[in-house]
Amino acid sequence: MTDRLRAQRLVRGMHPREVTVVRRPTWPQTNLLVFGLRRGSLTVVVKHPRNERAAAALAREWDVLRELAADDRLDPWRQLLPQAVGYLPVGPGRMLAQGRLAGVPAERLVRGRPQDLHRTVTAALSFLAELRRATGVVQPAAERSGEWAEPQLEILSTEIGWCRAGAGAAGLEALRRRLHEGLAKGVMTQAWTHGDFHPGNVLLSEERARVTGVYDWGNARMDGPSEIDACMFVLAVRAARSGRPLGRLVADAVRAGGLPAADRALLRAAGVDPDGGGDPAVLPLLTWLWHVAGNVRKSPQFGRSRWWVTETVAPVLEEASR
Fold it and tell me: Which residues contact 20 (CB under 8 A, 6 or more apart)?
């Protein structure tokens, strides 16, 4: 059955609507059927899980959307966040519906208009700075190191076979020590944290001057280490521009004792201390950990992919072991 036919069957019985399937090529999203429903000027985005792992991810996203809607501190940015429209948690027609956000995907701007790259990055980081100021509390990272690292490390150990023994397990343990030692000396901002703030989840205005929407809040939490969002965006832009996998870039940062000077300057301009008051490798390592854990939690295909483990996971854990 084609995706379009499946989408039409899922909404059978509703008023006549135009159905547009959204192509999502990456592994986490192939576990979802994503399509738009339009009737007149009203458009909603519908996500239908193809398996139980995706269904669990949608349940988590629904909870986060309701938390976002209930947080009065976010009122100035309400129009930039997906509106929770409806959720059917059980049955063959289970789905999550949310309001459609307008704007140009930042991913397209990063790849298609390199001359505007600085404006694109500045707009995204400015949005994060405002969110951090409105919802954040600066505190010693040691107070939250367990919550911010241990669940993600456990996901890697459980979902990635290479991490269960030998060099992978040793690298994971070395990463655990490096994170806890670094966070024990550092300072970070506990605030609303998207958890996977890359250009594919960010929409911008045509002139690249401001963020108009942010999608996919399924990995978010209101008390996360918010600096990782800015670091994720900077790393993702560098990965898109260089063609190098995220794991290789983070391994380079660990080897060099921190992010490249240009990336550090961008973070400082956005109010993020790239050193976190401690080990300069901790911020890229924690950012990488949340990104990787979020991917394998949504889709077990990641942990089973030899190429992905080799390019994204192994370089970081090998470098952490040195």
Answer: 35, 36, 38
